[in-house]
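User: Show me an example of a complex going from sequences to structure tokens.

Assistant: Sure. Here are the input components:
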Amino acid sequence: MSRTVHTAALEPEAFAPFGEVIEAVGEPDQIINRGMCGRYHDLAGLDFTGDGARAGISLFQARPRALPYELDMMERHPQGSQAFLPMTADPFLIIVAPDACGAPGTPKAFLTRPGQGVNYRRGTWHGVLTPLHEPGLFAVVDRIGDGPNLEEHWFEEPYIIQAP
Amino acid sequence: MSRTVHTAALEPEAFAPFGEVIEAVGEPDQIINRGMCGRYHDLAGLDFTGDGARAGISLFQARPRALPYELDMMERHPQGSQAFLPMTADPFLIIVAPDACGAPGTPKAFLTRPGQGVNYRRGTWHGVLTPLHEPGLFAVVDRIGDGPNLEEHWFEEPYIIQAP
């Protein structure tokens, strides 16, 4: 079985099984501020479970990676969705996988365009945050709360994520 | 009375009466992903009131402005905090004011550094979103819900916001 996965451009349709692409495309839902601003409204399905769990804003700063990228682990958060909003215009790498009996199935990899973020649906297998450029800075909207909310799966043999 | 307001660099202490500066400074609260990522945890006081109100992620795309900027109106959201997270590294202009008997008092203006976002506390008087560069794209975490959540105040004479 090939362990090579080629990246694709991030598109909402292909990403839909895993969550939402957060981007400003097409006509805005509302024009506000006397015509000076478009609002693209409520783009992510925030979903947090567990006693007292709530949405919060954190920042993640991650070291840039490069392609080809060796994917040896994926993780998921059973108690909450997780949105990544880049604070620069640089593309970043997104890796997700369907669930296959409690482990990640074959991964899919996407490269974002400037202005695209993502929201991983609760329980979605995904790779750790992989910017491709400095400073690797992202706003993250995820679950704030107690209790275990991380599952990791290590592959016996890594996948290699490559450009198309 | 002077109607000129000079911008200052955005610093958490000066901004504290109005909300939080969302930025990755100092040591992260957690190191995750085997040392590859720092998490600056739960940086904003999200606060939404009213039946069924909840946090949501929207995108705002606003036309860039320039300094000097004529401030003729400020607004506030009595039912919710509002966070602005720039999706580019460009600085933007922030204008806030203390409340003075139901109207904005003398405004304060701040210029962000790359990597800084803000969260306006619920009910804080602020100017509309004023990027200084294209594409003027921001992720916004604010209140999703019904009911009136906008108050506007128009100044008889505008303030002029200027560089220091």
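The lines above are the inputs; the final block is the predicted structure for all two components together. The longest helix of chain B spans residues 12-15.
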